[in-house]
Amino acid sequence: MLASLESDRTFVADKAAQILELENQIAVLERSIDALRVAQKPAQDRLDSYKYPVLTLPNEIISEIFQHHVPTYPEPPDFFEDSSPTKLTQICRKWRQIALATPALWRAFNLRCISSEAASELPPLWLERSGFLPLSIHGTDADDLFPAFSASIPHCARWEHLDLALNHPSNLKAITAAMPLLRTLSLFINLERLSPPHPFQYAPLLHSVVFNCQTPCVILPWSQLTSLTLRCMYAEEIPPILRQTSNLVHCTLLVWGEDFFGSGPDYDITLSCLKTLIFEPSVIDTSVVLFQHLVTPALVCLELRESFLFSEGLGAAIAPHGGVVGSLEAFISKSGCQLCELRITKASVPQEIYRSAFPSIPVINCFKAAVPNSVAVFA
């Protein structure tokens, strides 16, 4: 019994000594922690007072930076891609507030890259966020998406750039109001005809039109246009349009169907302001006769397929390439123009022949194949 008590006293004494030692160590550590906390406080205070530079910028500057994040207007961002302004609303509360208060971020959108489910919600939301700014709309009626485009029709007074791809041109009849801000119009129309053509109401600023359709499906103020592209349009539809484009500066043509024309000066089409003329290559050479009847005294840049120059009755025969050289000489002489650039596509005649025959033209290029995106080269 006594031995057991002695053993307990020894155990208690040892543990008490151990606890005392641990308490001494804790005290030392606490003093170290206190010292570290004292050293930490200035660093923490400085960190707490630090603001990220982007968060110190005025809201107006951040808004301007945001506008460089999205594609340059009038190019629209996709609704859900990284370039979408929606991404900016998902970073922090401040950025969301600034993005929602910047109408310029929301004034261009592409309805061709959106699901039918989102199409009923997002376009009205973006239109509301765009405030009263002019709009750039890329729309379609494919896959039941015309209702999404229809949401923008009440805002047509704000349309500045309109690009439509339609399977049913009769949907154009939904556009009846004036478009006082419209500057550029692009229409891709399926095979369905629209008769009679739909008149686009008051559009005094419209200056650039791209048609990719077989017949003119709308009536436009042709005389005020300075840029016109007609692709896949029937040959007989083009002359009546060109005769009305008295102020045209840039013209690109891709003609479908049989190219027929009368003969004589009464059938000539004078485009006195035209500086750039491009005939895009087609499957068959349907633009030959039309080319011969154009009179373009201000023309500077010309691109066409070499086969357009093979035509009887134009120019003197200069063997062995007199046909093409003579036709081109006749066109230049008839127009009285001074070309600065000539591009011949699908050429078989050596480039040196053209340069020798036309030394006054500074830039002459011949290509054995078609030249894509040539409009961008001349523009």
Automatic annotation (TrEMBL):
Domain F-box: 55-111
Coiled-coil annotated spans: 12-39
Protein name: F-box domain-containing protein
InterPro entries per the UniProt record, alphabetical: F-box_dom
Signal peptide: none
SUPFAM superfamilies named in the record: L domain-like (SSF52058)
Coiled coil in keyword set: yes
Keywords (A to Z) from UniProt: Coiled coil
Any matching Pfam family: F-box-like
Keyword set includes Coiled coil: yes
